[in-house]
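Obj: model holo form, ligand = flavin-adenine dinucleotide.
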Amino acid sequence: MNIVVTVKQVPDTWAEKKLDAADKTVDRKSVDSVMNEMDEYGVEEALKIKEAHGGEVTVVTMGPAKAAETIRKALSMGADKAVHLTDDLLHGSDALATSAALAKVISTLSPDIVITSSEASDARGGVIGALLAERLALPQLTQARKVTVDPAAGKVTIERLADNGYALVEASLPAVVAVVEKINQPRYPSFKGIMAAKKKPLTTLSAADAGLDAGAVGLAGATSTVVASEPAPPRSSGTIVKDEGDGGTKVAEFLAAQKLI
Amino acid sequence: MAEVLVLVEHADGEPKKVTAELLTLARSLGEAAAVFLGAPGTYAKAKEYLAQYGAARVYVVESEDVVGYVGAPAAEVLAKLVADASPAAVLVAATADSREIAARVAAKTDSGLIWDAVALTPDLVATQGIFGGSTIVTSKVVKGVPVVVVRPNSTAPEAAPVTPSEQTVDIAISDAAKGAKIVDRVVEAKSGRPDLTEAQVVVSGGRGLGAAEHFTLVEKLADTLGAAVGASRAATDAGWYPHQNQVGQTGKTVSPQLYIAVGISGAIQHRAGMQTSKTIVAINKDPEAPIFEFADYGLVGDLFNVVPQLIEAIEKRRAG
Ligand SMILES: Cc1cc2nc3c(=O)[nH]c(=O)nc-3n(C[C@H](O)[C@H](O)[C@H](O)COP(=O)(O)OP(=O)(O)OC[C@H]3O[C@@H](n4cnc5c(N)ncnc54)[C@H](O)[C@@H]3O)c2cc1C
Ligand SMILES: Cc1cc2nc3c(=O)[nH]c(=O)nc-3n(C[C@H](O)[C@H](O)[C@H](O)COP(=O)(O)OP(=O)(O)OC[C@H]3O[C@@H](n4cnc5c(N)ncnc54)[C@H](O)[C@@H]3O)c2cc1C
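Output (holo structure tokens):
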């Protein structure tokens, strides 16, 4: 199995996130960065498929030079090699441009399966999986909480989260799978894994290397623009009350005062 | 006046409240045109509702093909309508399924996509709350036909009855769009309560409940308030409550008038799904729990004492 998994570097989950005042893109300089937590589940699933069926896991990311840290994490978890698409021209790419760029890189890798996650924690679009399926003209197996691959039959089946339960969805390989965090428990990189990661092949591509048209990516190619941004009015700090035996009554009084009951 | 396409959000033909919200919003932008995609025989159940909320036109596709495969067929239909009707915009609800369809439509029509809008002006400037609602951004699509994913509960639905002109869309779904076949649907939901994303009041339970059977306490409080029931990931992962009730980054995003968190610590991933609620009440025995940092009213105490008393107090007030 030739397995491709996408990972995105994002501001640390607990960091206070801001937009850059000048160009209204995420301020990635003033905060620590981590691998998007959901992508750890994607990498784990890719490794599980490899362990069950053999093959190779290739990590693909698009992001600034610093995103190499996230690649290294995926490699130390056990992925085999990586492609890092990085170029100042790509800065400010919207979801449409991001998916087009990723699809271009992924198509050169001739994957049997493409694993992505259902959401990145910074922009929270939840759309890249569907967009990769569209761009690569592959089946869209998104919102997957369970994946079963049958390489001999060339088939993949998922349990797709639905509003009232789940749907069983079937497709032929190759396909795009976007996983949710219910799917597995991501492993931690081992010391051995961290050491091994340093020797694993990493290809760095510029936009031109990847065959991308400079006008179609980054802020230049954006299909939407931010008109303005401002901090939301802060929540006025609330009332905290300790239960003295009448806590439930107190809550009811608050709700009544707010005309909520 | 240009049409504004609204993808009808429905369950087997029964429209969701967000559909009325989107139609109301569409009418402020142009002529509202509903797009109904469903299994054969389901449109009849939606017809009256769409007329009631002012859909001047309804495009109808009833076919197993649009419901039998993930994502691609619906996107194909919408992209065709965008090409044929040249609408001013396409509006879809911010549900997992519809946002994916919207993205594909934007890609197919070479248009811009904006997600999680909470408002849209007549000149199509969208307001988004980003980073869990801590920053407010206004943005505008600059290419193609704006495809806008709108949050439920952001527009107050207003009735404006019309007699829609109905148009059956004749489209053969391509084989390429039939890649991801839905072979079975398994229902796990607990029903009978309001829809989580549409409810005006949500009561959620977390690990503090300690066991699945204690969720009856949360349900009882919810029923006293006519509320939907939510859960933290700790509670859904433990199997105490179905996953589709999970609130948070990877669960549902809710924005009700009132959110009551019971035995939930308020982790950032939980907060991401509920912090734009109008009023937040937290019941937690740990005074250091992060949820108290953003609750409007926090009660530090044991939920097993507080919640039964709260239910009783509400019932007493009701009784007058
Ligand atoms: C606050 C905010 C709001 C935004 N709003 C919009 C908007 O309304 N419309 C729009 O078109 N763009 C928008 N963008 C830009 C958009 O975030 C980027 O294009 C982004 O790379 C793709 O969207 P996402 O991160 O939401 O992806 P998601 O769809 O949430 O991510 C799912 C998965 O896709 C993969 N993935 C995503 N990005 C990359 C990457 N760069 N490299 C490798 N894998 C990746 C990861 O596996 C990730 O887990 C917004 C950005 C921000 C910060
Ligand atoms: C990729 C990813 C995605 C995630 N997505 C989500 C998501 O969508 N939604 C989500 O909720 N979480 C999500 N999480 C998990 C999140 O980080 C937290 O682990 C989770 O929200 C904790 O749930 P909890 O508050 O119920 O449990 P805990 O954090 O264990 O909190 C339980 C609380 O109950 C209180 N308590 C205990 N007993 C009592 C009592 N008798 N009376 C009163 N209070 C009591 C405790 O003081 C404590 O504060 C995600 C995590 C990751 C990594």
